[in-house]
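Example for tutorial group B:
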């Protein structure tokens, strides 16, 4: 099978269709585009989600914390703690483990979460460092924001820029990257790892009228749009020219012939709401770049020129990361 996430059809047929909902405490069940579950433990709901980091060579600690916390934030929930599993190849050194754990703890401190447990193991089942993390979060004052909540006529907002996480990874994997980027541009691409958190915008949007949210991970912006449409049962019309791609990301993608709109994009949050301009202004006042990139309308996902967008396939990053 191909590397990367299962297709949505495979995920539904092979796994999701077999899940049983038997406990009344489980109030949000898994589904396409639904990255969190919520459990009623008697007061505020507990929100949980899990994510791996498998492709990155550097800045793994920051990505481990941010990517997992993002799923909780996309539900409008405040991350509280992380359970982190580290799977390390036999070639790893103590110095590398020390660097990883230090970066992990620093990222957790910035995110205001505690690392509360997990597992660490040297195993020849992996050839590079792999992390897998579960976040425990607390629902926001407006309850759970589900990707199933998008409604006809909602504005679609994207924060930051497409391919953000992917550019950071590409800068590590492309051979002779110095022939593509200046040293300043390469440093900028690597700095994108520090921008992969969407907790600030997620909590703000949840308190200010978001009907649905979804963070753009594997499959990029277009994949996230498709998953949001699938979860809510409402189509999306996208304004291609409004989707921001950083010039450094454009350079990297052009060099290896991949589409930045289908490149892993942790750090980009999709937010739907009735009043797009108000949400946009609020995000910008927080210092978060954002743009209205579409609207909820009709069926399926398409650009405003009528071009249809198919369901997500393997992320573009796997054309470079083997």
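The residue assignment follows.
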């Amino acid at each position: 099978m191909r590397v990367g996430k299962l297709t949505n059809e495979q995920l539904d047929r092979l796994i999701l269709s077999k899940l049983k909902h038997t406990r009344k405490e489980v109030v949000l069940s898994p589904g396409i585009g639904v990255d969190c579950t919520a459990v009623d433990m008697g007061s505020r709901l507990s929100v949980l989600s899990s994510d791996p980091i498998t492709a990155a060579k550097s800045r793994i600690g920051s990505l481990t914390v941010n990517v997992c916390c993002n799923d909780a934030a996309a539900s409008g929930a405040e991350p509280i703690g992380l359970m982190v599993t580290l799977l390390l190849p036999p070639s790893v050194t103590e110095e590398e483990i020390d660097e990883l754990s230090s970066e992990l703890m620093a990222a957790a401190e910035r995110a205001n979460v505690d690392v509360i447990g997990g597992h660490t193991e040297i195993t020849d089942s992996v050839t590079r460092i792999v992390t897998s993390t579960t976040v425990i979060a607390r629902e926001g004052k407006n309850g759970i924001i589900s990707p199933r909540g998008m409604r006809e006529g909602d504005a679609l907002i994207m924060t930051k820029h497409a391919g953000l996480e992917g550019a950071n990874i590409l800068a590590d994997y492309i051979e002779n990257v110095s022939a593509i980027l200046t040293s300043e541009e390469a440093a900028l691409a690597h700095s994108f790892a520090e921008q992969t958190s969407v907790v600030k915008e997620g909590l703000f949007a949840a308190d200010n009228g978001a009907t649905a949210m979804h963070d753009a991970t594997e499959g990029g912006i277009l994949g996230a749009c498709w998953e949001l449409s699938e979860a809510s049962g409402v189509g999306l019309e996208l304004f291609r020219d409004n989707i921001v791609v950083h010039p450094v990301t454009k350079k990297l993608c052009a060099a290896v012939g991949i589409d930045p709109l289908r490149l892993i994009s942790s750090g980009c949050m999709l937010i739907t709401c009735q009043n797009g301009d108000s949400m946009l202004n609020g995000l910008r006042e927080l210092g978060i770049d954002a743009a209205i990139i579409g609207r909820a309308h009709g069926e399926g996902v398409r650009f405003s020129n009528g071009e249809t967008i198919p369901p997500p396939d393997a992320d573009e990053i796997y054309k470079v990361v083997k």
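The CA atoms of residues 9 and 15 lie 10 Å apart. Compare this with the pattern of hydrophobic and polar residues in the output above.
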